[in-house]
Structure formats: structure tokens, C-alpha cells
Design brief:
heterodimer, A: 118 residues, mainly beta, seven-stranded mixed beta sheet, four-stranded antiparallel beta sheet, globular, B: 115 residues, six-stranded mixed beta sheet, 12 strands, 54% strand
Chain lengths: 118, 115
């Protein structure tokens, strides 16, 4: 199956600093990638759709100036949490769509990044 | 509105027995896809099985099968011969073809397999 990597897997930072999370598709190209946020024992909430060569599309209620997304190439998307605060502490996970069979196109997920803002 | 409903917050199953995790969906689209993902405590999302809205046969992948009842808008996951390693959170999701292939997730079901 397709492989998506994410870096870093863990990050602890002080309040007010910015944190960059990378999402890479390792063995396929992805013109679109998705960024999700997940709080403990809750479901995944889509934050934004990252589009290669154009601006990201943000979901309602997600601050685009707070969560900067850059889709620099067909294999790399980055999420930068600017001026992070404790309420930004969460599990961030990216995904990329991949056709795995004739009619099946699923999303393969990265391993996720746990962010803790002190 | 596009919505996925998982009504079972938690389930227990005895090792080697089968278990069914419920999922109902709501959409007015004719073309959609339904997915099940497993999330162990490590946090990674593991793709299990896919069912397309036009697929006439129920999808199967090893010990996983998807009981697709289109008229009832349900897509239940059946895990046969449960193993201790099946203990995890399970999410049902729907792909919205008209919305850039975004996924909408249900609330999830925590499955615990007992030895």
C-alpha cells in the first residue's frame, strides 16, 4: 500500500513559538493532501485541504492565519502552527488519496504528530 | 447534510468470536464511498476496507467484511475470529465525491477483545 510519512512524531514547545509539521507521500504523488486534528478519545476533524500549486482550502471555523499550509511539491505538504498556545495541543494527522484498486480510492494516513504546547 | 453515525461508543468481544460494528450514513449524493479505519493506541490510522456506492457485492478483506445495506444506509463492519490485536478504536468514514473527496468520520467505536 501507499506510504505517507509525517515529521516530527512528537513536539513539545513553549507558548508563542511556531511549529512546522511535514507530511510526505513516499511512493506516490499527491496533488491533494488533507490535514486533520484529533483530540483525545474523539474523532478526526478535517482542518483543511492542501492543494499543490494553489492555496489551501480551510474548513469552516479553522483560522487560516493560525494554521498555515503549504503544498510545496507533489510529495510534500507542511502545516505550520503559528504562535502556538496550549489550546493548540492536539494530535495532527495528514492523509493523501491513493487509488488502490479499480474503483477504490482511499486516503492513506501519516503516523500523526502529537503537539504539546506548554 | 453529510453525516456518519456510530452508535456504539464501546464494544467487548471474546477472542475468536465475531463482532459487528455499526455504521449508518446520511447523504443525498448518488456516488459515495464508505470506509473503515482502525486506530490503535499508537494513533496511526489503518485502512481496513472500502465499499463503493455502486458496488453490488459486499466488500471483504481477509477477516474484515462490510455489510452494505444501501436502502437502510448502513455499512456495518464485521470482524471474524477476533484477535487481541484487534483492540483499537474503529472509525467509519464516507468520502464525498462532490466535495473534493474529503472524508467525513463517525465518532468511533472502541473495541476491546477479551482473552
Amino acid at each position: 500500500g501507499a506510504v505517507v510519512s509525517q515529521h516530527p512524531s512528537w513536539v513539545i514547545c513553549k507558548s508563542g513559538t511556531s511549529v512546522k509539521i511535514e507530511c510526505r507521500s513516499l511512493d506516490f504523488q499527491a496533488t491533494t493532501m488533507f490535514w486533520y486534528r484529533q483530540f483525545p478519545k474523539q474523532s478526526l476533524m478535517l482542518m483543511a485541504t492542501s492543494n499543490e500549486g494553489s492555496k489551501a482550502t480551510y474548513e469552516q471555523g479553522v483560522e487560516k492565519d493560525k494554521f498555515l499550509i503549504n503544498h510545496a511539491s507533489l510529495t510534500l505538504s507542511t502545516l505550520t502552527v503559528t504562535s502556538a498556545h496550549p489550546e493548540d495541543s492536539s494530535f495532527y494527522i495528514c492523509s493523501a488519496p491513493f487509488r488502490y484498486s479499480g474503483s477504490g480510492k482511499t486516503q492513506y494516513f501519516g503516523p500523526g504528530t502529537r503537539l504539546l504546547v506548554l | 447534510a453529510q453525516k456518519i453515525t456510530q452508535t456504539q461508543p464501546g464494544m467487548f468481544v471474546q477472542e475468536k468470536e465475531a463482532v459487528t460494528l455499526d455504521c449508518t450514513y446520511d447523504t443525498s449524493d448518488q456516488s459515495y464511498g464508505l470506509f473503515w479505519y482502525k486506530q490503535p493506541s499508537s494513533g496511526e490510522m489503518i485502512f481496513l476496507i472500502y465499499q463503493g456506492s455502486y458496488d453490488e457485492q459486499n466488500a471483504t478483506e481477509g477477516r474484515y467484511s462490510l455489510n452494505f445495506q444501501k436502502a437502510r444506509k448502513s455499512a456495518n463492519l464485521v470482524i471474524s475470529a477476533s484477535q487481541l490485536g484487534d483492540s483499537a478504536m474503529y472509525f467509519c468514514a464516507m468520502r464525498l465525491a462532490l466535495y473534493g473527496n474529503k472524508l467525513v468520520f463517525g465518532a468511533g467505536t472502541i473495541l476491546r477483545v477479551k482473552s
